[in-house]
Amino acid sequence: MSNSTLEKRRPDQGPDQQPDQEPKTSPSQQPEPNAPDNWRRFFSFSTDHKVIGIQYIVTGFAFFLFGGLLAMVMRGELITPEADLVDRTVYNGLFTMHGTIMLFMWTFPMLNGLANYLVPLMIGARDMAFPKLNAIAFWMVPVFGVILVASFFVPGGPSQSGWWAYPPVSLQNPTGNLINGQSLWLVAIALSGVSSIMGAVNIVTTIFRMRAPGMGWFKMPAFVWTVLSAQLIQLIGLPALTAGAVMLLFDLTVGTSFFDPTKGGDPVLYQHFFWFYSHPAVYVIVLPIFGIFSEIFPVYARKPLFGYRVVAISSLLITGLSGVVWVHHMFASGTPSWMRMAFMFSTMAISIPTGIKVFAWVATVWGGKLRLTTGMLFALGGLFMFLFSGITGIMLSSVPFDIHVNNTYFVVGHFHYVINGAVVMGFYAAIYHWFPKMTGRMYYEGLGKLHFALTFIGVNLIFLPMHPLGLMGMPRRVASYDPEFAFWNVIASLGGFLLGVSTLPFLLNMLSSWTRGEEAGDNPWRAIGLEWLVSSPPPHENFEEIPIVISPPYGYGSDEPLVSNHPGGTFAEPSKSTPVANLSGESNPS
Amino acid sequence: MNTGQERTSDLARVLNWRQIINLTGLAIANLLISLWMGQQAYSWMPPQASAESILVDKLFSFMTAVGTFIFIGVIGTLLYSMLFQRAAKYDPSDGPPIEGNVKLEIIWTVVPIMLVIWIGFVSYQTYDQMSILGPSVAQEMKREMKEAGTVPLEPTRTVNTGAEETANEPPIEVRSRQWAWEFRYPQENVSSTELHLPVDQRAKFRLVSEDVIHGFYIPAFRVKQDIIPGKAINFSFTPIKEGRYRLRDSLYSGTYFAANQTDVVVESEADYQQWLQTAANTPPSPAENVADSEFSRAEKNAVSLGWATVRPAPAPIVNYSNKQIPDKQIPDKQDPNKQIKKQTPRLEKNPDE
Amino acid sequence: MSSANLEATLDPTPDPALNSTGAHAAEHEEEDHRMFGFIVFLLSESVIFFSFFVGYIVYKTSATDWLPAGFEGLEIKEPLINTVVLVSSSFVIYFAERFLRKENLWGFRLFWLLTMAMGSFFLYGQAVEWMALPFSFKDGVFGGTFYLLTGFHGLHVLTGVLLQGLMLGRSFIPNNYEEGEFGVEATSLFWHFVDVIWIVLFLLIYVWR
């Protein structure tokens, strides 16, 4: 039984001796939670991947809240059929910027943050391959964020052509100015691409080159697999978007004819450039979330990840397939029938490796010893949301059906179930799970569960009604609609407001726990992984001695130690906080 | 690894008759619920007003049933686990070290593959039967993008045209612009902002855009086609039910995109011919549309509540125009014929009214 | 990438050098990682060019009005000379690298400078060609894609020459190459990359009619 390892002490220690503490290094290196200069690291040009990771996450979350505010105004407009809350141009700017901010300022930075924080720890490295490049890539984020927010204040307002920026609408530029919302948008997107590619080069190099001795490919945690798969997509897909954006920018500012039909250009070609990246981009977003689920279910079910190797390979399969499905966004566009059919089949194919993961997670949970902590609840909720959206996704891949619901609220409901269902819940799950590791403190379990309940009800209330709305024929991106759509829209708006409110217990929990939560210890969840072998928060150099890995991950229920050169082998030394409180899964006694 | 496999075959032996009967019972219950959901799916769709809608709804019902089955199966399993497989309080032990089960993994790879091939095949067949998309031909666009507005297009140059165009009747030309619809019936030389079609006859269209990409979407017919500027796209479908339906611009086309809607009236051949006749005898006049009226109201305001916008194209000058009020003329779902009125010819409207 | 590091990636047994926390070990690691990272970056960069190539091919095969009015086609003679110069410069830079590996600094500097000259010649030739052309960036999809492709490539050639200049300057710092020549290797690889892109570009734009 593995609980024997909890009690393990080093062989040279007597029964009365305390196990060795982590050696103290100088205060400036050791991020003591109560050190006075602690918080300043997060506003500095730090090259520590752990600091950069948190910088990314917090910045991303701030933009998530901002994008959410924009959505609240949109839902306010949509409570009534008429365009009576804001001007139509304002609504159009709102939905454009909502999508843009959520994708480029929230999901990509946040996922880069999680990858940054966790990957070096999980593979037993001291930092990323290129720490300075890492910091540069992060500090670009506030820059293009500011550009996007600034676009609200230029004459003509922000881009109002949707986050796709389809020409010819995106070329219309009513003010005639060179510096307008659309051109600022394109510049911001280009910068975002540069930052992301820097990050991708860094992460891919790190994963290929800096794994601890003994960590072959199939001893690597599933989260690292998914991050690798996602970053490979970024490397290969982003440049295509950059190319299309550059051409669009030239059309807009210089007057070239790439996509302008009045000058012989082809607007549909832009759509190909755009979706060639933007479809795989959604896998960039969801793959790390899959990785998070794969990390969380084993811990809280106390069972190995079912079919780990196949789950790992399926990540790469998804990466490969994701590159050949993009035309499913263009089934109703200027595409010939043969192209629609071909991409229908390729799109359906991608459901297979994805389905394998879903079944594997269910099988991981089944027969385990479940603890429904907040992290586990969010992971389960995310799985629920993802399953639903996967099913509507297969429906959407069917061309005749998609012709009816393309560009309607059905699609909006589908992708929000993925993004503001699976992805956001996966994010919360990750935060609750690794919060103790990152901060050295425990969060308040009761508040966490409240957060989960409000979120789960909220996302379903807002996005489920969008499906019948789409089936009935309500187009997306509309500031006004026919009265027959009013009923579901009211419900959706109520759900939206609830969703907004649901972030409050989370914020409260994070702020109060970080400053005065109970000390967490090295491994409050008794999880198996390299990151759990070090202190919470980890020391500046992560590992005193680089671990030598001798077992595959998720060794729950077996006695094999994870590493050969760490006292305890699998679990860190017993922590100061009582593990018993966490064993019961009850609220943190405080 | 050895322990893992041993444990799974232990479990396999443990699956006794009672459990097999339980599982089969649950599977049958799931199947029944799924079939029921498949039937419900029809009610979530608009009335079936075209031949294509019958095909699409059947496909959707099938996919709903399959999806429901998978959803209930997976969620049911998870819920059971969440309710009945929780760790005992203060039990620090792990669960069984099961790392995989080759048989199970093969099943849940092969079965989805078969399901997906099935759905793909049915979809392919459906699309083939619908056959709504015709060939598209290049269309020269003469005007500068900067100024929005209707400029009469030059006659098209000789390019390959599809067989559709040379069959019996020339297609109805659908002209989309920012932000109004115009329909031209070339044979009768009639133009209208409301689309009239005879029931039970295959309707043929030639979709053109005068400025940006628009979407030609009639939910009741389950048909949609983006209209690409620079191309004339041939399109066709068959309305089968008389009534008044909504046509909506489905591809975001700028400021007044949401208001770019009109009605489609499907009527008997006799009524249709009569409408055409009346319209042909009505002198053309500008048709009011929501975009125009909102824009001119906004222009008159001293304070602008929004940002700069592209000017709406000049109102279409048509023989027949409908009043662009969104709400009063939506057909009753039970009886679409309730709302059909005899169309009286419109006199020239005073633009200042 | 040395074979030792390839081994370390494939062979999971522990490498004593990796256990140390000394700066020396870290430097070695970072050097090898830098080349890997640079190659990864170049792979990504090549996709931008591929995207532009695809755009060019699509426009050429589908546009009704391809060449601008009155324009018969591109001259191939001068660009061919430019091509020969650029491709040859890849060999020249290769020799420069070899000199450096044999620690012959002056041989290295000579051939390196020669590469820079050939690269500059290419840029000059490109500028001359551009100025003689009767169509502009805005002239239809041909004008757009022509200047986009050649311009974007020219930007890379310019970057390559500037990087070479930087490396040339650094070669005068005493003992600069004690720890290895990553900068030179990377600049050289970048130059080969720029070359290969040009060959494809030349075939697409000048040869394919």
Quick gist of this model?
The complex is a heterotrimer of chains A (590), B (353) and C (209). Chain A is mostly helical and 590 residues long.
Write the layout of secondary structure elements.
The complex is a heterotrimer of chains A (about 600), B (about 350) and C (about 210).
Chain A: H1 3-6, H2 49-77, H3 88-123, H4 131-150, H5 181-209, H6 222-253, H7 267-301, H8 308-322, H9 337-349, H10 351-365, H11 374-397, H12 399-405, H13 409-439, H14 445-463, H15 466-472, H16 486-516, H17 579-584
Helix pairs in contact in A: 2-3, 2-4, 2-16, 3-4, 3-5, 4-5, 5-6, 6-7, 6-8, 7-8, 7-10, 7-11, 7-13, 8-10, 11-13, 11-14, 13-14, 13-15, 14-16
Chain B: H1 2-14, H2 17-41, H3 51-84, H4 102-130, E1 133-138, H5 163-166, E2 172-177, E3 180-185, E4 190-192, E5 195-198, E6 203-209, E7 214-218, E8 223-227, E9 231-237, E10 243-249, E11 261-267, H6 269-280, E12 285-286, H7 290-300, E13 317-318
Parallel strand pairs in B: 2-6, 5-11
Antiparallel strand pairs in B: 1-9, 2-3, 3-4, 6-9, 7-8, 7-10, 10-11, 12-13
Helix pairs in contact in B: 2-3, 3-4
Chain C: H1 3-10, H2 16-19, H3 23-62, H4 77-101, H5 105-132, H6 140-170, H7 182-207
Helix pairs in contact in C: 3-6, 3-7, 4-5, 4-7, 5-6, 6-7
CATH third-level topology of chain C: Four Helix Bundle (Hemerythrin (Met), subunit A)
Which H/E pattern describes the elements of chain A? HHHHHHHHHHHHHHHHH
Number of strands of chain A: 0
CATH superfamily of the domain at 48-214 in chain A: Cytochrome c oxidase-like, subunit I domain
Beta-strand content of chain A: under 5%
Please, could you describe this protein's structure?
The complex is a heterotrimer of chains A (590), B (353) and C (209). With 590 residues, chain A is mainly α. Chain A is built from 17 helices and no strands. Among the domains of chain A are: 167 residues, Cytochrome C Oxidase, Chain A, CATH 1.20.210.10; 156 residues. Chain A starts with a helix and ends in a 6-residue tail after the last helix. The N terminus and C terminus of chain A are likely disordered. Chain B is an alpha+beta fold and 353 residues long. Chain B is built from 7 helices and 13 strands. Chain C is mostly helical and 209 residues long. Chain C has one domain: Four Helix Bundle (Hemerythrin (Met), subunit A) (Up-down Bundle). In chain C, helix 3 runs antiparallel to helix 6. The N terminus of chain C is likely disordered. Chains in contact: A-B, A-C. At the A-B interface, helix 3, helix 7, helix 8, helix 9 and helix 10 of A face helix 1, helix 3, helix 4, strand 8 and strand 10 of B.
